[in-house]
Amino acid sequence: MDLVNQSVLTKVHISLLSCLWPINGTEADSKQSLEGRLLFAVPKKGRLQQATLDLLAGSDIQFRRETRLDIALVKNHPIALVFLPAADIPTFVGEGRVDLGITGRDQVAEHEAFVPATEDTGVEEVLNLGFGKCRLQVQVPEKGKLERPEELVGKNVVTSFVGLTEKYFAQLEGLEGYENGVTNGDASVRSRLKTKIKFVGGSVEAACALGVADGIVDLVESGETMKAAGLKAIDTVVESTATLIKSKHPSNQKLVDMIASRISGVITAQKFILCQYNIARGGVETATKITPGKRAPTVTALEDPEWVAVSSMVPKENIASVMDELTACGATDILVLNIANSRTG
């Protein structure tokens, strides 16, 4: 753990040493404050941040982040939260500098396009978190002549995801060597690309209108920004959601498992609702087909021997139609209860 702490303290954000403690605190104090703590990287800003913070709160990971500080010590567990750009998290987790992280699958794929995983390096996905859904797509002007991605070969393409874009066009051009990462020290593969790929850190969608690019590769969530910029998607490079990742050699696997279990429970609670109702025994088979639950519904006898009570987890998005179907098959006293948290198989 000493090596991990030292690496984070010197390589992640050296300025944090003076921020963790009052002005008269020392670097040794800061290092000592992280001693024995699992390092958990979370997005410091952007589209994944708020949902991540909500997950941590639901998992009873208690912390207070001081204004403008990028490390927060968890009060009730030996964990230190490290706030990093989502794009940097796969690098620090993959190198073992940080034990655990939340980022997008698109960022993990981009990292691996540059630095393919080995037996000891790279990240392992622990849990698909389900939020932050988006697609990394090839886009061209809506009113232009380009209709297929092959037509962009040899032209100018702008993106923030250079690794994935180079890999995509290398495959499109039929170049050998792209499988293990186009830019992983193999300059010859990059030099043989006919397509001219340029990096832009933001406002990628403006590149075509400004004459910088013939096409772009950019993230699409709702598609509104793409349409507003007069663009259309002609192919998808990667589909992405937020994911919980860990290094291949975390400092505390037991703590990693506990965090993953808690987060999984919160996600399940967000997706499901508890439905309870009474029904005559003759209708149980039909009703339980409507509410099968995650494993099986709970059926409890009532004082009236002809009736039973049923309790089952139902996806929130289906609850209205489920209630209608239960009513139609004779169920009564139908109640719907929110689930604050859960542990399910």
From TrEMBL:
Family listed: Belongs to the ATP phosphoribosyltransferase family.
Kinase as UniProt keyword: no
Family annotation (InterPro entries): ATP-PRT_HisG_long, ATP_PRibTrfase_cat, ATP_PRibTrfase_CS, ATP_PRibTrfase_HisG, HisG_C, N-reg_PII-like_a/b, N-reg_PII/ATP_PRibTrfase_C
Pathways per UniProt: Amino-acid biosynthesis; L-histidine biosynthesis; L-histidine from 5-phospho-alpha-D-ribose 1-diphosphate: step 1/9
CDD domains assigned: PBP2_HisGL2
Keyword set includes NAD: no
Protein name, per record: ATP phosphoribosyltransferase
Ranges where the Histidine biosynthesis HisG C-terminal domain occurs: 269-341
MF GO annotations: ATP binding; ATP phosphoribosyltransferase activity; magnesium ion binding
EC number(s) stated in the UniProt entry for this protein: 2.4.2.17
